[in-house]
Amino acid sequence: MAPDMLNHSSKIVCVMDASGRLGTTLVHRLLQRGYIVHAALHNYQHLHHDIDEFLETFKGGHESKNFNKNLKVFHSDPLDYHSIMDALKGCSALFYSFDPPPQQPNYDEFMDELEVMAAHNVVEACAQTDTIEKVVFTSSATAVFWRDHHRGHRHQEGGDDDIDERNWSDISFCKKFKLWHGLSKTMAEKAAWSLAMDRGLNMVTINSGLIMSPDLTIKEPYLKGAAEMFEDGILVTVDLKFLVDAHICVFEDVSSYGRYLCFNHVINSTKDAVKLANMLLPPSSNDQHQSLDVKKSDPQHVRISNKKLCKLMVDYDNTSSQLVN
């Protein structure tokens, strides 16, 4: 029996930040499904993304006419409450993800403050917008698995070996080992949940694995501690298409709740690790294998589970066959 889905005819939704890989693809898929989309491009300190350049990605093909009709582009600064409110006006939902500002592209010990402030502003703006029915908040798997479970400690203590969205990364552990991406994502998501519950806001989070893309490099902040992830069997990746499907599914399914750990591949064998290392570094590099600390034998790992999301997505229609006219 198919799950109850939202009646999304004439629905207006907002995607913020719409300029990244995830945001742009989400905008495209939502337009395909017949939504009217407010694409909010983050504007940090007047460093504008070019609107014409953004719109160019949606030109061409038989869909372009309807896309132009149903797409409205905004500049928004996640640290500017009023610019967020402008983008949310009339929207029934927000898809929110955070990308570092151009002047601060790498995660460091100060990024958590910026990301927490942005999450607070966005959730508060949604709570003050009468039309918002649901918020889909993109977090990370690094907000789930970073804690002292290495080298079988959990198993020795007799605990449950499974890791899923019920787990949270330990803030002290992240600070101790300078896992700034995990720290920022954990603190921002916790802040968002605290405020959403206080304001009675309907919110779900997607805790995404490493997003696979052609431009992925070893400098990706998610990959700090990649060797330890591999050793523990928690180095999880997700294809962009699957990630976008997951976002739309948790929005449209009225039964969705809480957090969803989102990945569709686990790097838990030496063969997979070498393949990823070769992708992350140029062929001429002598440090390919060392980038993931590949060993001769496969790691002894804990189990990481995305069962909750997979169960929800069993009956998800990921085609555009039910377009809203």
Describe this protein's structure.
The chain is α/β, with parallel strands linked by helices. The chain is 36% helix and 16% strand. It contains 12 helices and 12 strands. The protein has helices at residues 21-32, 51-56, 64-70, 81-88, 111-127, 153-156, 171-176, 180-199, 226-232, 240-252, 270-280, 307-312; strands at 12-16, 36-42, 71-76, 93-96, 134-140, 162-163, 203-208, 210-212, 236-239, 258-262, 265-266, 303-304. The strands form 3 sheets. The protein has a 7-stranded parallel beta sheet with strand order 3-2-1-4-5-7-10, sandwiched between helices. Strand 8, helix 9 and strand 9 form a beta-alpha-beta unit. The longest helix is centred in the middle third of the chain and has 20 residues, at 180-199. Mean pLDDT is 83; it is low at 151-159, 286-290 and 321-325. This is Dehydratase. It comes from Lithospermum erythrorhizon (Purple gromwell). Residues 15-158 form the 3-beta hydroxysteroid dehydrogenase/isomerase domain.
List the defining traits of the structure above.
12 helices; globular; 12 strands; 3-stranded mixed β-sheet; alpha/beta; 7-stranded parallel β-sheet
Q: Which geometry do the CA atoms define?
A: globular
N- to C-terminal separation? Answer: 25 Å
Number of helices: 12
Structural class: alpha/beta
- As a percent range, the share of strand residues is 15-25%
Assembly of the depicted chains:
single chain
Helix content estimate = 25-40%
Compute the gyration radius: what is it? 20 Å
Pfam family, one: 3Beta_HSD
GO molecular function, one term: oxidoreductase activity, acting on the CH-OH group of donors, NAD or NADP as acceptor
Family: Belongs to the 3-beta-HSD family.
Keywords: NADP, Oxidoreductase
